[in-house]
Design a protein that fits this description.
Number of domains: 1
CATH topology: hypothetical protein yedk fold
Strand content: 35-45%
CATH superfamily: SOS response associated peptidase-like
Number of strands: 12
Distance between the termini: 24 Å
CATH architecture: Alpha-Beta Complex
Shape: globular
Order of helices and strands: EHEEEEHEEEEEEHHE
Largest sheet: 7 strands, mixed
């Protein structure tokens, strides 16, 4: 699964990579957690746009979000048939920018956190889906989930799942919600190539959402691990 991630690239860097026109202003984040707002890129009126959505998908048919489980991840396997994800997967796909994500490796009764990033330090694009939930009072809220797949060889020793990462050359295929092209988009939900990523242990301070600074992604030396 993906339950925490970081996004510290500048708005201008993301605009160049993802190809949206706006230049949003947002601070670097090192401990993004649900149900906080997350940045995403989606198609609006035929063009790519930057947007914010609450992390935790709420399908449009839900009557009371307070009584509905927070869907922060959507498993790629069978995603197009599951009632909670079916409509969004076929019509409302998005990319979730990140500079890396955290996973925890079980060790006895505890878990050690690891940060996973691209070897070239470039931002990554996690596959996402989004929905707009409308309340009886007319109020609307955009919500999103990150799509996950089986872990690749880099992640497997830490966790058995990982976000499905979309290569820049495939951005349009994933974002284009054309029913005729859906199978091409679904085929992208595969473990990332091993040479894309690196993972290293970080401090357990990341366990607290209140800790949201660059110290979270600093490597922990083997001889100075925190208990």
């Amino acid at each position: 699964m993906c339950g925490r991630f970081a996004l510290h690239s500048s708005p201008d860097e993301l605009r160049r990579l993802f190809g949206f026109e706006a230049l949003p202003n947002f601070p670097p984040r090192y401990n993004i957690a649900p149900p906080q707002p997350i940045a995403l890129v989606r198609i609006e009126n035929g063009a790519r746009h930057f947007a914010l959505a609450r992390w935790g998908l709420v399908p449009s048919w839900v009557k009371d979000p307070k009584k509905f489980a927070l869907l922060i991840n959507a498993r790629a396997e069978g995603i197009a048939e599951k009632p909670s994800f079916r409509a969004a997967t076929r019509r409302r796909r998005c990319l979730v920018p990140a500079d890396g994500f955290y996973e925890w490796r079980p060790e006895g009764k505890s878990k050690r956190p690891y940060f996973v990033r691209r070897r070239d330090r470039a931002p990554m694009a996690m596959a996402g889906i989004w929905e707009t939930w409308a309340g009886a009072d007319g109020g609307e809220i955009d919500t999103a989930a990150i799509v996950t797949c089986a872990a690749n060889a880099v992640l497997a020793p830490i966790h058995d799942r990982m976000p499905a990462l979309i290569a820049p050359a495939d951005f349009s295929t994933w974002l284009d919600a054309d029913e005729k092209e859906f199978q091409k988009a679904a085929a992208l939900l595969q473990p990332a190539p091993e040479d894309w990523l690196e993972a290293y242990e970080v401090s357990p301070r990341v366990n607290r959402v209140a800790h949201d600074d660059a110290e979270n992604i600093a490597p922990v030396a083997a001889n100075s691990r925190a208990a």
